[in-house]
Amino acid sequence: MAEVELRQVDKTFPGGVRAVRDVTLTIADRELVVLVGPSGCGKSTLLRMIAGLETVTAGEIRIGGRVVNDVEPRHRDIAMVFQSYALYPHLNVFDNMALGLKLRKTARPEIETRVREAARILGLEDLLERRPRQLSGGQRQRVALGRTIVRQPQVFLFDEPLSNLDAKKRVETRAEIADLHRRLRATILYVTHDQTEAMTLGNRIVIMQDGAVRQVGTPLEVYRQPRSRFVAEFIGSPSMNLIRGRWIHEDGAWRLHGRDGEVVEAAPGVAPGVAADRDLDLGVRSEHLHPGERPPSLQRAAWCEGTLRFVELLGSETMLHVTVGKTTLVARASFEFMAAVGTRLRLWIDLNHTHAFDPVTGKPLV
């Protein structure tokens, strides 16, 4: 396997469309890194440049210490799995997996060994004689994975490989890819727009927006310590709640007056930890919003009141959508919490787990 280095990589398409902007990133040997971001953020273009399917406008790409900007895709020693399975319908599973090796004139015994080992890893041993039409979507995706494994490349590139699967198969195949990484100790760069996929798969996550890298870190780092309002809203399900307003110290109490009619009041003797009379976007995750009575363990708290407009019953937990002013906040409650739509609810905010962002730049306020 090999390290992948990107140094100030840029991509501008004809017409002046700048798809990738000054990306500098290192993917360590045997690391699984996930590129995540909304559609059009440049993540797939970046992956295609590493594969050699797109030219680099500026900057440098290194694989295993070798500059590959002008190296043909077939000589980069990478393997790519696309959104489409791209299996040959007239070939069985064995021959689909072996085709690349046959084209490279690999010896038949070596082909047999590699294909059967990949089939064992992916649980395809009993399916080698089947044609693609006889397989489920998840099985076809595993065959596409097997086709890349048998090549034994330095780097694996995955471009949204699970987007064609249903929810259950997506979870199953995601687990298989994570297990595959542990077994092969492979260098993998994985692209997705699904932040849940990114959180569960990556050793590190790279969040992109408008062609640029906004934050790089472990899943928990980017979830707990977002470096911008964009990252805070994009990572996490549901998204981080945001109240746009200003903390004011009046009559001995701290209150946040929201732009859309929200009022958040700190508990007596509690300060929010930011300067007064400054516009900000207050962010709080759903698990740090507590409906009903104030939890005894909540030391630094503030509260607001709103109307319950929607309840999501998820079995193990309940998501409460509460309208405060003109803003809807989502609070996470236990499955035992009961309240009717239209009920007035008090939400307690854990001030030890709030975030403050500049409303203009989106950067954290300290």
Question: How are the secondary structure elements laid out?
Answer:
Elements: E1 4-13, E2 17-27, E3 32-36, H1 43-51, E4 58-63, E5 66-67, E6 78-81, H2 93-103, H3 108-122, H4 137-149, E7 155-159, H5 167-184, E8 187-192, H6 195-201, E9 204-209, E10 212-217, H7 219-224, H8 229-234, E11 241-250, E12 253-258, E13 263-266, E14 279-284, E15 289-291, E16 301-313, E17 317-324, E18 327-334, E19 344-350, E20 354-357
Parallel strand pairs: 3-8, 3-9, 6-7, 7-8
Antiparallel strand pairs: 1-2, 1-4, 4-5, 9-10, 11-12, 11-14, 12-13, 13-16, 14-20, 15-19, 16-17, 16-19, 17-18
What labels describe this entry?
8 helices, alpha+beta, 366 residues, 23% helix, ten-stranded antiparallel β-sheet, six-stranded mixed β-sheet, elongated
Class per helix and strand makeup: alpha+beta
The ordered string of helix (H) and strand (E) elements is EEEHEEEHHHEHEHEEHHEEEEEEEEEE
* Largest β-sheet summary: 10 strands, antiparallel
Question: What would the average pLDDT be, to the nearest integer?
Answer: 91
Helix content: 10-25%
Fraction of residues in β-strands: 35-45%
Separate helix tally: 8
Q: Label the overall shape.
A: elongated
Radius of gyration: 25 Å
* Uncertain regions spanning at least 5 consecutive residues: none
- State the separation between the terminal residues, measured CA to CA: 41 Å
What's the total count of β strands? 20
Question: How would you explain this protein's 3D organization?
Answer:
With 366 residues, the protein is α+β, with helices and mostly antiparallel strands. It is 23% helix and 36% strand. The protein contains eight helices and 20 strands. It has helices spanning 43-51, 93-103, 108-122, 137-149, 167-184, 195-201, 219-224, 229-234, and strands at 4-13, 17-27, 32-36, 58-63, 66-67, 78-81, 155-159, 187-192, 204-209, 212-217, 241-250, 253-258, 263-266, 279-284, 289-291, 301-313, 317-324, 327-334, 344-350, 354-357. The strands form three sheets. Strands 11, 12, 13, 14, 15, 16, 17, 18, 19 and 20 form a ten-stranded antiparallel sheet that branches. Strand 4 and strand 5 (66-67) form a beta hairpin. Helix 2 packs parallel to helix 4 (137-149), helix 3 (108-122) packs across helix 4 (137-149) and helix 4 (137-149) packs parallel to helix 5 (167-184). The protein starts with a strand and ends in a 9-residue tail after the last strand. The model has no long low-confidence stretch (mean pLDDT 91).
